[in-house]
Design a protein that fits this description.
PsaJ protein; rod-shaped; about 50 residues; PSI_PsaJ; about 70% helix; mainly alpha
Length: about 50
């Protein structure tokens, strides 16, 4: 049976892998872009009067 410390160290090692970090980074970047476009929409679709 594994110790809790071993499982935590394996979990930390998994979170530091490149694919996991890439997915997190892309998710945060897309979410930021989507929120920005929701708050400040493109003037092509919402023309000024």
């Amino acid at each position: 049976m594994q110790k809790a410390n071993d499982q935590q160290s394996y979990f930390r090692r998994y979170l530091s892998l490149a694919p996991v970090l890439a997915v997190l980074t892309i998710s945060i970047a897309f979410s930021t872009w989507a929120i920005f476009n929701f708050v400040f929409p493109d003037l092509l679709f919402h023309p000024m009067p």
